[in-house]
Design a protein that fits this description.
154 residues, globular, mainly alpha
């Protein structure tokens, strides 16, 4: 599978999980915890695939605009991974505070996904050949399997 299709598939799954999580109520304590854990695991792998495989390829093939895009996208990752998600993981799932934080995380991620799909990915398609995107996709698939294995073993 080519790199872009693989990442878009991940986006679909994360958006679905976020939608599910945001429709739960304070009573769904266990379900909220499970969904959040699943989102955390999916994002962990997805972000690594982007930051270690696709983003560097775009940065290297592009010019100043691509470098700016690269840093903006990385900063959006950091906001979720280092600030929003850790806070959420320490919030009681049966509270309204949890729901508020989920809403903010969902908005941030939807914005980020939208920007990737409308700017970053089309740029990647312009700068990188079909063959390269296939190769990157293959590397991603291998890496993904390995990381999933690590998550299961943890
Ligand atoms: Fe991303
Ligand atoms: Fe993404």
């Amino acid at each position: 599978m080519n790199a872009i299709d693989l990442l878009i598939q991940d986006h679909k799954l994360v958006k679905k999980l976020l939608e599910e999580l945001s429709t739960t109520t304070e009573r769904a304590v266990k379900k909220r915890g499970e969904l959040l854990h699943k989102i955390e695991q999916e994002l962990q792998i997805h972000t690594r695939l982007e930051e270690e495989i696709l983003y560097p390829a775009i940065k290297q093939a592009g010019g100043k605009d691509e470098v700016k895009m690269y840093y903006e996208a990385k900063e959006e990752h950091r906001t979720v991974d280092s600030l929003v998600l850790p806070d959420l993981l320490h919030t009681e799932t049966g509270t309204l505070e949890f729901a508020g934080r989920v809403k903010v995380m969902k908005e941030l991620l939807e914005h980020h996904i939208e920007e990737e799909e409308s700017e970053l990915f089309p740029t990647a398609k312009k700068l990188l050949s079909k063959k390269i995107l296939e190769e990157l996709g293959q590397t991603m698939e291998t890496q993904k399997k390995m990381l999933k294995g690590e998550q299961r073993a943890a």
